[in-house]
Amino acid sequence: MNDSPSYPAELGVSMALPDPLRGSGRLFLWPKSGGQALRRLAEEAERRFDVYDADGCLAIEVNEDNIVGFLGRLRKGLSEEDLEETRALFKPGLDEPSLSDFPRADSLRTFITFARGKWLGELMSEKRIAVFFQPIVHAGSHEVLGHEALARARSKAGVVGPLRMLSAARDASLLPTFDYAVHEVAFQERANARAEGKLFLNTTPTTASEPDLVLEHVRRLCRLYGTRPADVILEITESEKMSQPDQVERFVTRARDDGFSVALDDLGAGFSNLNMIHRLRPDIVKLDMELTRNIHDDEYKAVIAQKIVELAKTVGIRTVAEGVETEDERDWLEAQGIDYLQGFLFGRPEDLPRDTLDLASTDG
User: Fold this and answer.
1) 262 φ, ψ to 5°?
2) What is the distance between the alpha carbons of residues 317 and 338, in angstroms, rounded to a whole number?
3) Which of 63, 67, 250, 269 could form a disulfide with 24 if both were Cys (CB 3.0 to 4.6 A apart)?
4) pTM above the 0.85 mark?
């Protein structure tokens, strides 16, 4: 089987992004205000810069390895007004901007979105998206039910975590494209490892808001890699607000009709609320790690978790506790009747070995 995943051409999203910010150069910034904040952020990031007092311009030295991280720092450290009013331009090498360059200067907000989108597009087009798999086990027996596919990327500086990529994808309106790329790699790596058991596949609400596209995509992957829909659990992540809940409901209904199961991820964090359980009626709910961490010592967390597990059992929903790291947490959760457990106590996210795995194969 080909080891290089081929991102599907029929997704309707072009990967022909503009040329990346390659090599070294200088980022020229013209703040209308907030110049002091820009200098402070450049100093904190240990970036060399020159100040042109005549026009209030900062010329900050950057390269392709650090520019995206530095732009993320600016995005967090500047006010919305400063991001909109500061003009930005990148010039390679030590070249000064010429008159013909100034029309290309855009707001720093737009520049950041553009640059982060190109960076993410490079990761996808160069096949540098990776997937690590974390086991999910049955409570009590601790036999492996399956694995959650967790997005990572491989770069010169090491492994890139999911939050940075998700943030870039959201800013650049690339969430569906990113989800599709991760799904493709997850199916391929699982097939390469000949892994059995369930595959938990994260899907953002934005992607789920296009149910016809995403479900055809996952059906195609099942056919391509010989995976039964019954072995795929589509996790709707709650890292963002569901702007189109009616479409997400349609996604859940259609997914079940196709033989997939649906999980509601990160319950107890982000934008999650009990009303979404009523609206989506998932097969599985996952308690967020912030809720399960030290739950045996926290009365408030304990009461919330008990009520969620009780509610889930009453309406026939299975439960997964994420972020389980200690035996005390495990014992408390099992005593409450949790169905499945996930966390460092049972395995860290890692590559699957490329040989046959003896995993529990069960419809759970």
Assistant:
1) -130, 135
2) 11
3) 63
4) no
